Recover the amino acids of this structure.
């Protein structure tokens, strides 16, 4: 398969970006804290290598199937990251905060409904039904992800759940990328897929540029050393556990009082 | 472009603008609360006369947090409670301070992750206070504010008072250098 010089440039930049971020995640010990995000970056690093090899050694059909199989994996992992970020914010004590469960159901169902409505409204001009399905599918996942990220920030602010700095950084990057994805897919729906795929290629490069910016942002902010936790003395641990029991007790007492 | 496309693009534009507006506003608020400096946290605290707070709270709870059931408890008149807390303005300030108390606990949590349980309990207390104030507003609309002051306003104040005690205790136990400053601000 022939690749234009600019595509090779994007390929190289993508590989380097993922590689640097992968190293940063392990060296700064963020991999353990964000296993799904790290898996996603690792999968994307592997995808860059696999697709490059397939483009050189395999035919068009093999490249096509490999590309879309890996794209599905990529989308699934992005949704898994949303779950990871939600659980970091909304499960401070290991269980979902009791006052946000209803809001979650509402957020999830409305996000799916709005994303499905947009996917149905889109009418991209394509030769094959499958191409239209791919554009609609991408639009669906971008709209859904954007809603889930915006909903996550809005809900956490409303219920007063504080954010850890790294969770905020990863979420901001992915949220911005998803929002940009909505614009790109709307563009794909408008221009459709002409026989020489010119508009599609330009929009894909635009998406790749935004993604590379996100990679650079993550690599920069996550490379800063995390705040060192102070070793808690046994005495302090004991006091803290008493304090927690005390706070729980206060709540029950005051609730019970008439 | 099919006939559906203009509507589709208008909806996409509205969606993007809403996402940017809601996301941007919420992110800004999240940043000003979770990732702010100690000085900013203190400046966000609205000052209360601690002795008034204490008097209202200790009318229904012991300093330990246990409820009082003795004859000398719950003696304060609704008008007295209302005046001491500063009416609606005072209650709104108290509600605002609740989010600062959560951020103060979160500040300690940056160094002592185990403090997360205290932060979460304070957040739930704060939600409870929000609920009490909401019910008071409803009571005012129906002209029954006075009857509900001991039930909701006093309970909100007692919860807030205990929250401040827990935050001070957390700072004291964690040997945070800012304890004196915090005591002064609260």
């Amino acid at each position: 398969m022939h690749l234009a010089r600019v595509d090779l440039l994007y390929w190289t930049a993508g590989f380097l970006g993922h590689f640097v971020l992968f190293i940063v995640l392990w060296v700064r010990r963020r991999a353990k804290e964000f296993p799904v995000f790290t898996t996603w970056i690792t999968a994307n690093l592997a995808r860059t290598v696999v697709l490059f090899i397939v483009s050189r050694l395999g035919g068009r059909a093999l490249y096509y199937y490999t590309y879309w199989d890996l794209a599905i994996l990529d989308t699934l992992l992005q949704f898994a990251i949303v779950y990871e970020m939600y659980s970091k914010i909304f499960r401070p004590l290991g269980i979902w905060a009791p006052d946000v469960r209803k809001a979650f159901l509402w957020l999830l169902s409305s996000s799916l409904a709005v994303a499905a409505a947009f996917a149905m409204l889109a009418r991209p001009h394509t030769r094959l039904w499958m191409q239209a399905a791919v554009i609609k599918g991408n639009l669906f996942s971008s709209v859904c992800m954007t809603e889930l990220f915006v909903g996550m920030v809005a809900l956490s602010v409303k219920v007063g759940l504080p954010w850890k700095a790294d969770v905020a950084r990863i979420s901001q990057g992915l949220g911005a990328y998803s929002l940009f994805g909505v614009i790109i897919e709307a563009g794909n729906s408008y221009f459709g897929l002409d026989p020489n795929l010119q508009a599609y290629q330009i929009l894909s490069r635009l998406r790749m540029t935004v993604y590379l910016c996100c990679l650079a942002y993550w690599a920069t902010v996550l490379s800063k050393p995390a705040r060192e936790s102070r070793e808690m003395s046994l005495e302090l641990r004991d006091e803290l556990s008493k304090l927690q029991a005390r706070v729980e007790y206060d709540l029950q007492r005051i609730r019970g009082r008439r | 472009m099919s006939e559906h496309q203009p509507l589709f693009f208008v909806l996409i534009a509205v969606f993007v603008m809403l996402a940017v507006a809601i996301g941007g506003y919420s992110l800004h608020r999240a940043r000003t609360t979770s990732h702010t400096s100690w000085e900013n946290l203190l400046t966000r605290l609205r000052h209360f006369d601690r002795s008034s707070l204490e008097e209202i709270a200790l009318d229904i709870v012991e300093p330990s947090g246990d409820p009082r059931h003795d004859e000398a408890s719950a003696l304060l008149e609704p008008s007295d409670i209302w005046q001491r807390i500063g009416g609606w303005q005072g209650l709104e300030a108290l509600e605002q301070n609740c989010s600062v108390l959560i951020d103060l606990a979160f500040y300690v949590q940056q160094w002592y992750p185990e403090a997360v349980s205290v932060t979460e309990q304070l957040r739930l207390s704060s939600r409870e206070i929000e609920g009490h104030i909401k019910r008071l507003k409803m009571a005012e609309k129906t002209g029954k504010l006075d009857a509900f002051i001991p039930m909701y306003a006093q309970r909100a104040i007692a919860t807030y008072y205990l929250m401040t005690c827990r935050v001070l205790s957390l700072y004291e136990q964690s040997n945070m250098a800012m304890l004196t400053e915090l005591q002064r601000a609260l």
In short: Residues 105 and 123 of chain B are 10 Å apart (CA to CA).
